[in-house]
Write a structure and sequence with these properties.
With about 425 residues, the chain is mainly alpha-helical. The protein has 2 domains: about 200 residues, Growth Hormone, Chain: A, CATH 1.20.1250.20; about 240 residues, MFS general substrate transporter like domains (Growth Hormone, Chain: A), CATH 1.20.1250.20. It has 18 helices and no strands. The longest helix is centred in the C-terminal third of the chain and has 42 residues. The protein is globular. About 0% of the residues have low confidence.
């Protein structure tokens, strides 16, 4: 099996493993008697554990000769932790296990990112990342439907946890023996010095990116914790309707990820990131003005296209500017994004009590619009002039940006249609070949 094939299969199994239980973790915690504070603590603690793990593991992952072994060991430990979760009796114990699991999963996370970056050539990196996103979305969709059915019919039975653990370990077994790209060896001390003297902070593009991510994640996380609460309290949504919302998001990822990846390779990562931001900004406004769940389903489909574009474009953009030390760039980027998310998530509940949930969603909309301006100065490479969506606010620039936005989405729909037609023709060809034989 080729390296790319192993990466794809491993990604699929990872999505199956994590999505079998993770989407229902809040429900499990509530069943164990968790209060609202403890439910909110799950997200904050796991995010904090993830940030700490990446910083703690960074010197090790930079200095190891066989980096992939480190990834396999700790990712497998994280998968094994699903098993004790099946036997917990208290919400506090579950939260502790989730934090430890997040730490284990995140300790080697940047090794996995680097494996992907080095496995895919720059000229088609966006396409390959798009394919991985599609594969991950498909795995998550299958696991979500299967896990949701089991939990609704039988509750949180042992089968859910043991299956999640088995799939996670199998995911790592597939990667055993996979060839690693040779990189210059550095000592542990040299790795620490490289982190301390990180050169990325002297690069204008990276500093702009960090600022943009901090503002953006703050704007997003002020509103996102209230989405499900708003649907339940204001629109009377039940568990089935909430599941449909999540399912639509996964299907959009499966349908459009590959197309967005190809477009990112063709027109540039920055343009794809910017094309996704307006739809992401409109998401909380869509929720605030919705009067029924049909509106929510339609708006989720539209806005999720923006998230697919943003995630693929951002990963590819960061990979392009990270040069010879992608792990360090990704760690600092993820840390800034994570810290901003924690701060905003903690504020979200308090603001909802003071302003009301609808007003918090509208506030998130305005902040998301504001955050777009921090992405406009980014260039495709150091010293390049931003093209496509212009940072200028002149009437000509605005019209040009709208035209660029429409043309980008037209390309995405064309690529998606082409992908579907190609697959249909392949299936027809297989059927015809069987009949001929």
């Amino acid at each position: 099996m080729s390296k790319v094939a192993k990466i794809r299969l491993s990604t699929f199994l990872k999505a199956l493993s994590t999505s079998l239980f993770s989407p229902f973790v809040s429900l499990y915690a509530i069943n164990l008697g968790a209060n609202n504070f403890q439910v909110g603590l799950i997200s904050s603690l796991t995010t904090l554990a993830s940030i700490l793990a990446q910083f703690v593991g960074l010197p090790f992952t930079l200095s190891l000769r066989r980096k992939l072994v480190f990834n396999l060991i700790f990712d497998s430990i994280g998968a094994l932790l699903f098993i004790p979760m099946a036997f917990v009796k208290e919400a506090s114990t579950l939260i502790l296990l989730l934090a430890i699991q997040a730490f284990c999963f995140s300790l080697p996370l940047q090794i996995w990112n680097e494996v992907q970056i080095r496995a895919f050539p720059k000229w088609k990196r966006g396409s390959e990342i798009g394919i991985l996103n599609k594969i991950s979305g498909l795995g998550s969709f299958i696991a979500y439907v299967f896990g949701g059915y089991l939990i609704r019919e039988y509750g949180f039975i042992y089968l859910v946890f043991f299956t999640a653990s088995f799939l996670g370990i199998t995911r790592n077994l597939i990667l055993v023996g996979m060839e690693e790209d040779k990189v210059a060896f550095k000592s542990f001390r040299a790795a620490i010095r490289e982190v301390i003297n990180f050169k990325g902070f002297k690069e204008t593009q990276f500093k702009r990116l960090l600022l943009a991510r901090f503002v953006f994640n703050f704007a997003v996380s002020i509103g996102s914790p209230m989405f499900s609460v708003y649907l339940i309290k204001n629109l009377g949504a039940d568990s089935i309707q909430l599941s449909i919302v999540s399912t639509i998001s996964l299907l959009v990822s499966v349908l459009f990820s590959e197309a967005w990846g190809r477009v990112a390779d063709f027109i540039g990562r920055r343009e794809v990131v910017l094309a996704g931001l307006p739809l992401i900004a409109l998401f909380p406004l869509f929720y605030a003005i919705s009067t029924n769940m049909i509106d929510i389903y339609i708006f989720t489909f539209i806005a999720q296209m923006g998230w697919v574009a943003f995630n693929i474009g951002m990963f590819s953009y960061l990979a392009d500017i990270s040069k010879e030390s992608p792990q360090i760039y990704f760690v600092f980027h993820d840390a800034v994004a994570g810290i901003s998310t924690i701060i905003a998530s903690m504020l979200s509940g308090h603001l909802a009590e003071i302003l009301g949930i609808r007003n918090v969603l509208i506030l998130s909309f305005y902040l998301r619009i504001f955050s777009i301006f921090f992405f406009l100065p980014l260039g495709e490479k150091k010293g390049s002039i931003p093209r496509g969506l212009s940072p200028s606010a002149s009437p000509h620039a605005i019209i040009s940006s709208i035209e660029s936005f429409i043309s980008i989405y037209s390309l995405v729909f064309e690529e998606t249609k082409k992908n579907v037609i190609e697959r249909v023709l392949k299936e027809i060809g297989k059927i015809l070949r069987r009949h001929v034989k």
